[in-house]
């Protein structure tokens, strides 16, 4: 079984103070004096007082004291000044108001918007500068856009065929028609093979196309050619 080595010491400490109040009560202990109460900041550490040296000098304060009141002297006569201001001043104008109930409840007209004070301004009805500037910018942008559109249209515009070119094309088409017609007239009467029939149909189609082109050029004086 484990036995502590401090058991005897504990018994001695426990029975050391038992005898004092065994028959007569607890032992009498010195009671602190009522004048020796715990004061504020009494337990805080205190620094040792600073020793003054012989060469130290107390400099005068550069900041004025609280009790200092500067003397202000002025030559102005405020009584006369106020009197002149009252004499020369304009009288106070009565405020415009409106009464809307039987009890006499009234409200001012100027802040309500019913009093026409804005129409008396010098710039009343004049467009602000930023509006005129914005309108000018929009007009300039519209003109630039129209100029770009016209330029693109001019670039994509169709070319007008001149009279000389028209007559040359017409003569060339007629000459080509004569050649195709001569080849068509030289065809054999009997077209008993597939090759002869296809050649005849090809020549007929060429003649129809040439006749259509010649009629179109002779009908219209102005001819436009797209790029």
Commentary on this structure:
- The protein has helices at 7-15, 78-88, 129-156, 163-185, 194-219, and strands spanning 97-99, 106-108, 159-160, 224-225.
- The chain is mainly alpha-helical and 227 residues long.
- It has a domain at 159-225.
- The protein has a two-stranded antiparallel ribbon with strand order 1-2. It has a two-stranded antiparallel sheet with strand order 3-4.
- Helix 4 (163-185) runs antiparallel to helix 5.
- The mean pLDDT is 84.
- It comes from Bombycilla garrulus.
Characterize this entry briefly.
This protein has 227 residues and is mainly alpha-helical. It has helices at 7-15, 78-88, 129-156, 163-185, 194-219; strands spanning 97-99, 106-108, 159-160, 224-225. The strands form two sheets. Strands 1-2 form a two-stranded antiparallel sheet. It has a two-stranded antiparallel ribbon with strand order 3-4.
